[in-house]
Write a structure and sequence with these properties.
The chain has 103 residues and is mainly α. The chain folds into two domains: 46 residues, no CATH class; 41 residues. A two-stranded antiparallel sheet has the order 1-2. The longest helix is centred in the middle third of the chain and has 23 residues. The chain is elongated. The protein starts with a helix and ends in a 12-residue tail after the last helix.
Length: 103
């Protein structure tokens, strides 16, 4: 069995779906697996890190990611000056230098 066989079982109607490769890449990046995709030869070498098993941290990350995506959509749809939008995104509403904390 190979990666194509596994992809067919997971995504029968969407042959170009790359979620399988993405998931395997993430597991590799976190040191949980090693091996090759072609031919499919993957071995578990470690457990998932705690940060990937903590439901609260994963929910917080999902919330942050969704807020960032919403900001991107708002940026595309905005009718205001885009530079102003970016300034507000990164600096907030109050960006006057005289209001910054002093050392």
């Amino acid at each position: 069995f190979g990666i194509e066989w596994l992809r067919e079982r997971l995504h029968a109607r969407q042959r170009h779906d790359r979620r399988l490769e993405t998931a395997l890449g993430m597991l590799h990046r976190y040191g949980a697996i090693e091996g090759t995709l072609t031919p499919l030869a993957i071995e578990e070498i470690n457990e998932l890190p705690d940060e990937l098993r903590d439901a609260q941290k994963l929910a917080e990350k999902l919330d942050r990611d969704q807020r960032k995506l919403l900001s991107l959509v708002e940026y595309v749809r905005t009718e205001q000056d885009r530079r102003e939008f970016i300034r507000e995104y990164f600096m907030g509403d109050d960006t006057r230098v005289d209001n910054w904390p002093q050392d």
